[in-house]
Amino acid sequence: MFAWLRKFLSAFLKQKALTGHVEPDPDAARLENGWLHGLGVVRYPSVRHSSSSIDSPIGIVWHYTATAPGTAKSLAKRIQKFDAKKDRAASWHFLVATDGVIYQSVSVFEGAWHCKGSLEYDGSNFRVNGCTIGIELEGFGKVFTAAQTKSALELAEFLSNEFHMDNECVKFKHSQFDPKRRSDPGPIWGSILDVHFPSEESAKKGSN
Ligand SMILES: [Zn+2]
Known about the structure:
The chain has about 210 residues and is an alpha/beta fold. The protein has helices at about 5-20, 70-80, 130, 145-160, 165-170, 175, 185-195, 200-205, and strands at about 30, 35, 40-45, 50, 60-65, 95, 100-105, 110, 120, 125, 130-135, 170-175. It is globular and about 70 Å long.
């Protein structure tokens, strides 16, 4: 072996042993100007967004699309444009399809049009649309495929780490802001979230 190569490899392995990793993995999830790269995310930028009320999002609001499996991609394409005369003013940041593909429509540093109402955080009131990330789950909230569940939880995990979200804030539901008209994302997704992002109280119980 060439001496320089041996030297390089030994330095490489030493650094790996010290830090556990060497170079950032180019396939690892990362944000570029609010757009997610990695996790197999497909980006279809939408014009349907407004400015945020806060520097970085404080939480995630979950929804389901109430559309059949296989509709995610065409939904993502449809909301790229907006005609105020015929389109409903609706958009979201991410849509997780039943096949596990994640579609991003709006930068996480912009507000999407996914949830009306306001939210109190740190003693201030914010528009929900101005301070949260909206994630749609393809389907009706009754069945979640393994691929969809894995992608959605990886996405939530990434975003909650990136923005240091409290577990409670990772689990906002559309239904809690509009209980008379909305029931999404439904109790099944709620219990999946509770397992992966336990509330402080149940986390304490679990560790006893
Ligand atoms: Zn919704």
